[in-house]
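Q: Please design a sequence for this.
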């Protein structure tokens, strides 16, 4: 029987920033749309596609529901990956945090049930959020759960075909940020799109450096990730490009509010995070990059959300 601490580690808390950052950024973009200069355009769109928040309390409720959905999804996908990689033997020789299935700390069945329990929580919160905003978002939520499972689950997991980072960019970047904005404001703005691309790029960077660390074991196990396809040198170069995206976005967002330059406060954190990648670190030495990149993403999202909201 795995201990509570082992289950907590199995949920991979160092990845949770990938869930909360898009909700924060999307909420900031939503606030700018709700109370900014594009209110008339927002009202024209809301009637056809959904309903915007009626006030601060309603907006906060929708933001909290979005956070529950995103958090439960990432916990679910982490347990699902633990189960699927464990039963395939991919995690038998792996550097990094505890894997419940591969280590034998928990049975494969219990890890699989934990994954679907998390998906269930995400589904319930998502349905409530959809009823408050737009019913058709239930379909989007269902697609998110399907994508989460088949990342490493099923007979032909797309995570084994080098599409993991694309999936992270789409679901924890575009869908999470723009979905959060839409459920609160009823529209998607250009500021929201920039936030979505930035968060998606940083989330993909977290996933990419994780796969960079595992190139040797994944290659041996037949798990063809994007890092395996690119090789060590090009994976590091792509990672550096991804973490530069929010820096450029902060400069562009200054068109909306000059205070969005405050997003550059994340640059020192990104520089520290990039150290092991730039210096050619391998294996366990790359593990700290996961957490430091996630923290930089969260800081960028919070600062950008505040500046957009105050604009």
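A: Design:
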């Amino acid at each position: 029987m795995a201990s509570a601490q082992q289950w907590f580690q199995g949920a991979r808390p160092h990845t949770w920033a990938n869930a909360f950052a898009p909700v924060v950024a999307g909420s900031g973009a939503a606030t700018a749309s709700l109370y900014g200069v594009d209110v008339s355009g927002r009202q024209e769109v809301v009637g056809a596609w959904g309903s915007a928040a009626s006030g601060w309390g309603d907006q906060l409720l929708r933001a909290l529901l979005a956070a529950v959905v995103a958090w439960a999804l990432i916990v679910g996908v982490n347990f699902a990956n633990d189960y699927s990689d464990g039963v395939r033997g991919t995690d038998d020789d792996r550097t990094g945090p505890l894997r419940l299935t591969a280590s034998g700390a928990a049975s494969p069945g219990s890890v699989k049930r934990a994954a679907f329990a998390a998906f269930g929580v995400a589904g319930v919160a998502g349905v409530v959020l959809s009823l408050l905003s737009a019913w058709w978002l239930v379909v989007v939520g269902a697609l998110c759960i399907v994508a989460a499972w088949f990342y490493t689950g099923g007979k032909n997991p797309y995570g084994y075909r080098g599409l993991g980072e694309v999936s992270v960019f789409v679901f924890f970047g575009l869908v999470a940020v723009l979905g959060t904005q839409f459920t609160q404001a009823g529209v998607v703005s250009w500021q929201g799109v920039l936030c979505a691309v930035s968060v998606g790029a940083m989330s993909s960077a977290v996933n990419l450096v994780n796969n960079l660390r595992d190139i040797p074991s994944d290659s041996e196990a037949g798990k063809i990730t994007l890092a395996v396809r690119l090789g060590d040198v090009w994976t590091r170069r792509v990672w550096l490009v991804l973490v530069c995206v929010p820096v450029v976005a902060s400069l562009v967002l200054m068109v909306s509010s000059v205070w969005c330059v405050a997003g550059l406060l994340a640059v020192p954190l990104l520089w520290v995070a990039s150290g092991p990648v730039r210096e050619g670190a391998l294996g366990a030495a790359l593990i700290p990059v996961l957490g430091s990149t996630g923290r930089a993403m969260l800081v960028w999202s919070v600062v950008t959300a505040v500046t957009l909201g105050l604009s």
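Q: Thanks. Anything notable?
A: Residues 14-310 form one domain. Residues 94 and 139 are 36 Å apart (CA to CA).
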